Amino acid sequence: MSEAGRYLILSVDRDDDLEVKTKIRTPIQGWEAVQDAATRLALADPEEADANALFATIKKHEELKARGVDCEVASVCGTADRGFDADRKIRREVEQLLSRGSYTGIILVSDGGDDEHVIPVLQTLKPIVSVERIVIKHSKTVEETYLVLGRYLRMLIFDPHYSKWFLGVPGLMLLLAGVLVVSSRLYEAELATLLILGGAFFIRGFGIDRWIAGILSTGPYGYIRIFSIFSSGLVILVGLSLGIGFVATQVPDTVRLVSDSPNLILVYGAVLFGYFLKGALPFVWAGIGIYAIGALLAHLVRGSVRVWRDGVVLVVLALLYLPMDLFSTILIGGQRESTILLISYVLVGLAVIFGVTSTVYARLRLRSLTKE
Questions:
Q1: Which class for 310: exposed (0-12), middle (13-18), buried (19 or more C-beta within 10 A)?
Q2: What's the mean pLDDT in 293-320?
Q3: What is the residue extent of each domain of the chain?
Q4: What is residue 345's predicted lDDT score, i.e. its pLDDT?
Q5: φ, ψ (nearest 5 deg) of residue 67
Q6: Tens-digit pLDDT profile for residues 37-58
Q7: What is the pTM of this model?
Q8: Cβ count within 10 A of residue 59
Q9: 20 to 30 A Cα–Cα from 44, which one of 2, 140, 274, 283?
Q10: What are the Cα distances from residue 258, in Å, to 240, 249, 263, 271, 273?
Q11: What angle do CA 248, 251, 257 make, to 5 degrees?
Q12: Do residues 275 and 253 touch, judged by C-beta distance below 8 A?
């Protein structure tokens, strides 16, 4: 640094601790005024880092004076929000200081962290010829860590995208658990907490909330898809429940035997699965059909060519129903004739599917050639 010229040794308090804790208005200029401000701030809060920065400013002033450098010491403050208003206030106060004399450049004394964000603001006014960083025991790294943590905490609390998971889900868990505890139903409180927490993890982990939002953002047909998806899910769950109940009512002795000796599942597993399939199949197939019909209606409203694909899915479902029902009969204990009939169903189904898919593919290809 050249010692020619006159320099402004500047301490910047971006978050306005000096004015808040001492009621001293800035800008402050002159050795005595800055020393008084530093002393009053240290007395008001002995752990305040900005007091150290002010004393370091005074020390730098004395060092340069001893070397014959013409310099002046000063301090400015921003505002508590540390944002646009703080930087604008700092710029205005530095302009006042610079208007009181002719300065070659600015020597910035900073305790690091947030205060150094004002460097671009100061450089538009005068060159910054030196930056003196003051490291105290709680260190710049710790201060920056607190700033980052504070920023993320504000985001988790005030950003709706994150607050519903960070506050909403735990809040619902605590509310429901509190109601159940007051009702002396401790077991239900634990179960409800686990169900809510598990459901939230499942939904967020697999992105189900974003998937649903993406479907709804596609327009009115998105509601058709959502209705069909949830309806089909409910019907399939009912089918699975009926399948389990059908097994319990048809072969209770076998179920009891397998429960007592799990190794017998290899012997009776096919029979149990056959009864389960026989009881669940109508509702499970209806649920899958509801989903396919919902997709078909949504694509039909949109005028999408995928409506043909949905039509093929419905045809395949219809053709597979009888083979699946016959397959459950064979597992329960069907005769050789049932196996031959199953093979016949499969071959007929393959022929029909081949004819349908060939027709649809030819039609789609013709449609694309017509557009070209």
A1: buried
A2: 82
A3: 6-138, 159-206, 218-363
A4: 75
A5: -90, 0
A6: 999 988 988 877 788 888 989 9
A7: 0.46
A8: 15
A9: 140
A10: 20, 15, 7, 12, 13
A11: 90
A12: no
